[in-house]
Amino acid sequence: MEHADLVFTGGAVITVDGADRIAEAVAVTGGLITAVGTAEEVGAAIGPDTRVVRLDGGAVLPGINDSHLHAAMLGAYWPAMWLDGMADGGFPVPRQLADRADRRAAIDLAADVLQPLGITSYTEPGLGPGARGQHGGACDDETLAAYVDAATAGELRARVTVLRLFGELDGLSTVADLVAGLDRSTGADDVDPRWLAVAGVKLFADGIPPMHSAWMSEPYLGGGHGTLMVEGDDDDARLAALRAMIGHAHRAGCQIGVHATGDRAVGETVRAMAEALAADADSAAGSDATAGSAAARRHYIIHGDAIGPDTLTTMAEHGIGVNAQPSIYTATPGMLEPAIGACRTDELLPLRSALDAGVPVCLSSDGPVTMPDWRRGVASAVLRTAEAGPVRGPDQRIAVTEALRAYTMSGARQDGAEDWKGSIEVGKVADLCVLAADPLTAPPEKIPEIEIRMTVLDGRVVFDREA
Ligand SMILES: [Zn+2]
């Protein structure tokens, strides 16, 4: 056996493979995972030049995938986080990013925050002309160009998936802007897709429940149902525009992530995605082409605060995922209850129902809305309680194992990359998060306190707390 560069041994190697196996040790050689098993099995890979890291009862996870994270925006606002800032009484102000170099610096600053948290992959959800002039310029086309520059130079410090944005950020979108936008080059054709993949588009279907702008079946406490946030003078026209955008982006080969929070917005978005996917399957059935491209598309709902049971069934049938943010949920009952009441607040974030229905679930931070700390996200999804507050909707709690999968393997699936990242299996890239304690045996409320010891990206130690 070839000697390994790195071996982690003497703890819980939480593989997140298909059987959720726990191993004792893992070896890394030349950027890849080359052995996973007992300490004795993996010990055979230890040579004179191997760095051996004793886990001392700690654990190793696959590198964390924060699958909805505005990293350049995080860099522009750092160290402020939006929800923390609102608790202090004011919305934080970003630094103005004047040019591409400033945007590179913001992306780099984000990496300084993310690597000590064990994050090795993220999705930058929404870069493009729609965000021009907002958030210090952190989400515009120059930011996409800065990512392409960094990838071309081999200087990205996480694996990045980008969704482009042609409508307004948190605002109105039109079919014409989307069609024109998708005709423009991403500039990313020649970069290594394992480091930078411009996968598709982000669309906004509606707003958010606290602002009464999520499109809901049931009225808000003060009346009104919210509405779709796309062009059109009435619900029918807006729905037609949303469906046209989803259909167009799908036929253009894009992955589609749609911000949708109200149950009506989620339901109609899922219906449109399912129809686009079904049309592919029909045309493939009539020809020699396979339907593989449709299965590989990985469309998903972003946020999905309220999702009806029928919608969950359709999502599972078509492999449409939900990308949810438990830390936002547990931080905001005080904003949600005045809008929709306590009962409906408890029913939001239906993670248990989604998993039971077979819907792919990703968890993420939406940083800089919340700190990109997956440990807090896991605790929020498992406990559904804010500090000292009551448990909200106990039926929707999920297990730690499920939450860890939602931050690792499910993110890889969302990226269409489950064959080569997202779990600790031989042959996959060596992206790892090394912990001082085992989150599967720690009390869930203590998970946010587990120390992150090391982060390994592509086989290199990029963060080492002891160094
Ligand atoms: Zn977001």
TrEMBL record:
Q: Which domain of life is it from?
A: Bacteria
SUPFAM superfamilies attached here? Composite domain of metallo-dependent hydrolases, Metallo-dependent hydrolases
* Residue span, Amidohydrolase domain: 98-463
Name of protein: Amidohydrolase 3 domain-containing protein
> Native species of this protein?
Catenulispora yoronensis
